[in-house]
Amino acid sequence: MDDVFIGAVLASTLRMATPLILCALAGLLSERSGVIDIGLEGKMLMAACAAGSAGVAFGSLPVALAVAIVVATAMSLLHGAACVSQRGDQVVSGVAINIIAAGLTVVLATAWFKQGGQTPPVGDAVRLSAWGAFKPEQLATVPVLGPIVGGGLMGHNALVYLALALVPAVWWLLYRTRFGLRLRAVGENPAMVDAAGVSVKGLRYIALTLNGVLCGLAGAYLVLGLNASFVPHMTAGRGFMALAAMIFGKWHPLRAFWACLLFGFLDAVAIRLQGVSLPYVGEVPVQGVQALPYLMTVILLAGFIGRATAPRALGLPYLKER
């Protein structure tokens, strides 16, 4: 295994893990406030469709990002209206968002672009390009550092680095600020927060707004960073992977980050193993390789969901005492 291969796998891991990181942080903020968010998949899918459609229609990267964020935030606030204001079942609401997104994105894309639910490829001006002061070519001649650090860590687009930066930022927000203390408290004991004169609904809506922004960035990344156009069901279960990473990480941003990197690594390895013949095994079946991330999701959920302690008020609607 040479340095070039390691650098290539590292680069692919970061690219594939970016939407998972953004989505896991989104779910973490929501669930730390006491609101279950099964609808991560649907919000990310709606944001991807919005980014692809706006990118084709307006040819502007900022507009595509803004539309994706607005759509995902609107879906997140709709979830809040059903669960926080009306005290509906949070799991049912999340599942409904996933179902609506799966059908509505195909219908709208078909009606607008007449391409079987896909959008035309967005222009190069709308795509997220490599960002950073240093380019991989600058380390090309340096042994080890060139292929691994240069090829693996440099030359990514801005959303990759933003996702990495948001991990410590969310940790600091939750554990080093007054807002984070209140947010965690409302997920554990909302009656105590209410007794202190702080609005439980207000905190949960703020968490859901942040949740929508991060889901919007995750969905936009799929179109503007990974693919060139929106494809029906292109999230391919990433929202559920992010949910599994969040649970495996015990609702902690740093632990969830490492779980997302694990899923990203498996996805990167799955891409590299397609068509490869291994000793004593032969050619690895494509279906088996593609199933690796999803198999790990099931293993993590089956093995750790019983051990992870969720916020005590998670999923419980709060009714203010009079």
Descriptive notes:
The protein has helices spanning 3-32, 40-58, 61-85, 90-113, 145-153, 158-176, 178-188, 190-195, 200-226, 238-248, 253-273, 286-290, 292-304, and strands at residues 277-278, 282-283. It is mainly α and 322 residues long. The chain has one domain: ABC transporter involved in vitamin B12 uptake, BtuC, CATH 1.10.3470. Strands 1-2 form a two-stranded antiparallel sheet. A hairpin with a 3-residue loop joins strand 1 (277-278) and strand 2. The longest helix has 30 residues, at 3-32. The chain starts with a helix and ends in an 18-residue tail after the last helix.
What is the mean predicted local confidence, pLDDT?
86
What's the alpha carbon Rg, rounded to whole Å? 20 Å
CATH topology group: ABC transporter involved in vitamin B12 uptake, BtuC
Number of strands: 2
Number of helices: 13
Q: Shape, please?
A: globular
Helix/sheet category: mainly alpha
Identify the strand order in the major beta sheet.
1-2
CATH class: Mainly Alpha
Share of residues in helices: 55-70%
